[in-house]
Amino acid sequence: MKLQFKHKDYQAAAVDAVVDCFAGQPKVEGIDYRLDPGKLTKGQKQSEMDYGTEAFRNAPIMLDGGQLLENIQKVQRSQNLPQSSKLVATKNCKVNLDVEMETGTGKTYCYIRTMFELNRRYGWSKFIVVVPSIAIREGVQKSLEITADHFLQDYGKKARFFTYDSKHPHKLESFSSDGGINVMVINVQSFNATGKDARRIYEELDDFQSRRPIDVIKANHPILILDEPQKMEGKKTTESLNEFSPLFVLRYSATHKTEHNKIHRLDALDAYNRRLVKKIRVHGIAQRGLSGTNSYLFLEGIVTGKGGPFARLEHEVKLKSGAIKRIPRKVSVGYDLKAQSGGLAQYDGFTVSEIDAVHDTVSFTNGLKLSVGTVSGDVNESALRRIQIRETIRAHFDAEKKLFNQGIKVLSLFFIDEVAKYKRYDEEGNELAGEYAEAFEEEYQLALNEELELEDSAYQRFLKDITASDTHNGYFSIDKKSKHLVDPSVKKKGEEAGLADDVDAYDLILRDKETLLSFPEDHDSDLERRKKQVRFIFSHSALREGWDNPNVFTICTLKHSDSSISRRQEVGRGMRLCVNQFGERMDNPATAHQVNVLTVVANESYEDFVKGLQDDIKDGLSARPRKANEKYFTDKILKTDDGEIKITPMMAKQIDFYLIQNGYRNVSEEITEKYHEAKKEGTLAELPEELKPHAEQIFQLVDSVYSASALPDFEDGRKAKENALNDNFNKKEFQSLWEKINRKAAYTVDFDSAELIQKSIKALNADLRVEKLRFQVKRGEQAESIEHEDLMAKNTFKVTEQEAAYVTGSIRATVS
Q: Domain Helicase/UvrB N-terminal spans what residues (predicted)?
């Protein structure tokens, strides 16, 4: 399978924003110069000396500062961005342009296309992509490879690219002497670290004719593209970038820390509302009550079908050997936990009295009610991780059943903090499964057996052909001596703290990218088939950037929460829209969020994860305007089918009055919740006649004003299911019955208050049990559209509260 690339308006806008900043620059294919030949090597005669081959460097910028600033302001006006009052220079360059693009929207694709456009329009051909880590470097290298044919069709040429290696400096000669588009990818460790290899770029090398690689690089006057520049703002990195003598610098990121001349913005809110990234659903696991009890219970889910509903309930069972083991069971009404557990006393009173498939609850004869996804009792970390694995497998199957017939391969990703938990080795060096791999295979087999109970179908046959051991794989560092999987070396300090220089793992992930997206086929070799059967990926938590796979639909973090990693980073590996077996992106705006839903199985409570993710997104919207007033609307650009229209002062006054008159903005000049509710319900008041032709563009402009309610609304995935009507509803017999029973009725009961109180006290003294420990899993997902006011109210998730708890132990209490 080969990934297909489409022309997207939003990506073209990012490219045009850069290229238009240099409007008026004459096209010059390249300035000839003689490449420095270096010094005579040992034993070489003067007559044999190469006096330098012909080389090409970027032509200088012919526009003066005033022309450049005017172009930049024009680009900013067309996108309704704040206008720069000057060119923001840095120590290493006078021209610095910022491009803000949300993770998953094709940032790398955009700057590669920008290289081709700059070459086509102005003749510039030397580009250097600077990245903060080896991980991102490998991802950029892969992107250049897989887009080569796509850009060949559009531009009739290919870019020559290579990754800088201090041990092979001669590639710089080809970079300099070739007249076509040339791209060098380099990570900051290659020129700002203290190691021997990093210093070579500044040293006269014997194997490079006593030349300094940096001198050969700077002679090209390259255009620098900084990928994730916020991670490269240390003093040493900034000073080192001076050595490259760049023509100008382009900075691409979703979260710029330091701003220069911002010429394009596609933030998290824009990306979500335009269906350019996946919708997010969250499964959080929260601990409730006190620890120390031993009545373990986990209600995994409700199963409907013939003879149902049933509940998937895990509890402890005393085996014949006397050992206690936690075993998942498919239970029905009347199931007695005490009897089925071998007489364990902690389950006294736990007989299933009702299974509610609509509200996902199970009730017991002692009056207690359990919500699906709740874990309680004596839960150690190992048990908690197993629950996360189980939740991930369940979410995977849910997505896979929906997408299999659409030709979409579903992948799930586990982040772990120690390779030994996935794979370990005995004293003889033999491979053994780690605890997570063992738990995965056990839980997968249980889930698979349940899936295979359903009727035979193409999907069921697909599942039968894959074993539990073949459907997962680990991507980790490989020790060169022992060939064992090992933990990566992780940076402890500085800008790269917490990141891994794990070339082996990234190489494996990226090399197998298209294979992982493909279903097995009959003509595949055994090796290809095994690779294509992989649907669950285990990777080290340090490998949290630099690669992604569009068909990751579930992410599970099997490690302790790390405050240094933002929630946006955790979900970033799965935000890209998926592709089908033809490599086509499933990006139809009408159905994108029906197909593209990313489930995050968090290692913290639902509420904590949601709050953290919303705060991360909110921080990323800081560049948005805060006030909606006449001054803000004046001179803004409305893009219509007939061209651009500038909002006049009179039009701005009308818009402002319209918002005030209808209560759509408050005295603090902030957009109100009333506006967003009306927009969501389609009941917005009509605009004045003069503004009606541009209503869509005007409301888009209003929506661009920052509001906390704009954050995505992550719904609880445990919400009540919709009970769809079947053919029986229309039958005459049912309609006759329905006519008799569909009336509402009200019942009134009178109680003697004193008698009720005394009986209540007696019942509480006899039966009151105080809950000790439980875990509760909640799920939520984003709404189909995002409104601003929800962000301000921190109410951006649709959640169905499930407050019923497991009883996990009891303490006698006296009520008086």
A: 73-256
131 and 233: one domain? yes
Tokens read off for 624? 């948005």
- Distance, in Å, from the CA atom of 108 to the CA atom of 129, rounded to the nearest integer, reads 10
On whether both 247 and 349 belong to a single domain, the answer is no
Q: Rg of the chain over CA atoms, in angstroms?
A: 31
The dihedral over CA atoms of 732, 734, 736, 740, expressed in degrees to the nearest 10, equals: -170
Q: What is the pLDDT of residues 343-375, one digit of tens each?
A: 988 888 889 999 998 888 888 887 778 777 666
Q: What pLDDT does 289 receive?
A: 39
Q: Tell me if residue 506 falls in helix, strand or coil.
A: helix
Task: Determine the pLDDT at residue 46.
Answer: 47
Assess contact for 329 and 315: CB atoms under 8 A: yes
Q: Which residues, other chains included, contact 207 with Cβ-Cβ below 8 Å and sequence gap of 6+?
A: 169
Domain boundary among 266, 285, 313: 266
Q: Are residues 66 and 208 in the same domain?
A: yes
Question: Do residues 225 and 156 both lie within one domain?
Answer: yes
Q: Is the pLDDT of residue 288 over 60?
A: no
Domain range enclosing 344: 294-376
Same structural domain for residues 613 and 644? no
Is 246 part of any domain? Answer: yes
Residue 193 belongs to a domain: yes
Q: How far apart are CA 314 and CA 331, in angstroms?
A: 10
Return the axis-axis angle of helices 435-451 and 381-403, rounded to nearest 10°.
40
Tell me, what's the pLDDT at 735? 84
Contact 694, 684 (CB under 8 A): no
Percent of the chain with pLDDT over 90: 34
Bridge pairing between strands 643-646 and 637-640: antiparallel
Query: From CA 725, how far away is CA 710, in angstroms rounded?
Result: 35
Task: Examine the domain organization and report whether 174 and 66 are in the same domain.
Answer: yes
Cα–Cα distance between 307 and 332 in angstroms, integer? 9
Residue 501 lies in a domain: yes
Do 446 and 327 share a structural domain?
no
pLDDT at 778: 72
Tens-place pLDDT, residues 145-195: 999 999 999 999 999 999 998 888 888 988 988 889 999 999 888 887 666
Q: In what order do the strands lie in the sheet with 223-227?
A: 160-163, 182-187, 126-131, 223-227, 249-253, 96-101, 261-266
CA dist 392 and 380 (Å) reads 19
Range in 230-239, 677-686, 796-805 the model is least confident about: 796-805
Q: At what angle do helices 107-122 and 148-155 cross, to 10 degrees?
A: 30
Phi then psi for residue 172, to 5 deg, are -65, -25
